[in-house]
Amino acid sequence: MSRTTENTGFTCENCGKAVARLVNGSYRNHCPHCLHSLHVDIVPGDRAHDCRALMRPVAVEHHSAKGYMIVHRCTGCGARHRNRMADDPHQGDDLDTVLALMRLGPPEAGHTNRRQAHT
Questions:
Q1: What pLDDT, on a 0 to 100 scale, did the predictor assign at position 8?
Q2: How far apart are CA 90 and CA 21, in angstroms?
Q3: DSSP character for 99?
C-alpha cells in the first residue's frame, strides 16, 4: 500500500496563525509561532494518524546528527515525538518561543496556551 505525503501549509489549531509549507523539501510538522503540532502523521507527511489531537511542546533537546529538536506530547493519547526545528528562511521557528520553552521547561497540564507570549 502506497502512502501519499503532503507538504502543505495550515492554520495552527492552537494559536490560529497561518503556517506556510516548508520550501526545503521537508515536511512542516509544527507551528513556527507557538511550536504546537497536531498528531496527524504516522510517517512524516502522510497525515494518516487517527488521533488528530493537539501536541504540546514540552522540551527542546539536542540530537548530535539532527540538531535541536522540539519534543511534543500529545494531549489526546500521550505519545511523545521529537521534531526538528524548522530551518526555513521564510518562516523559521520563533527563537524567542524556543528559548522560553528551554528556560521554562514543560507546561503545566491544561495550559496549552502558556507559550504564546510572542503573538
A1: 77
A2: 10
A3: H
Question: Contact at 8 Å (CB) between 65 and 86?
Answer: no
CA distance 67 to 117: 25
The residue type of 93 is D
Cell numbers placing 63: 540530537
Give the residue with greater pLDDT, 84 vs 76: 76
Q: Model pTM?
A: 0.76
How is residue 14 written as a grid cell? 492552537
pLDDT at residue number 4: 56
- Outline where DSSP puts E strands in 1-119: 10-11, 18-19, 37-38, 54-63, 67-74, 80-84
For 16, the grid coordinates are 490560529
Name the grid cell of 1.
500500500
List 11's β-bridge partners, or say none. Answer: 18
104: left (phi over 0), alpha (psi -120 to 50) or beta: alpha
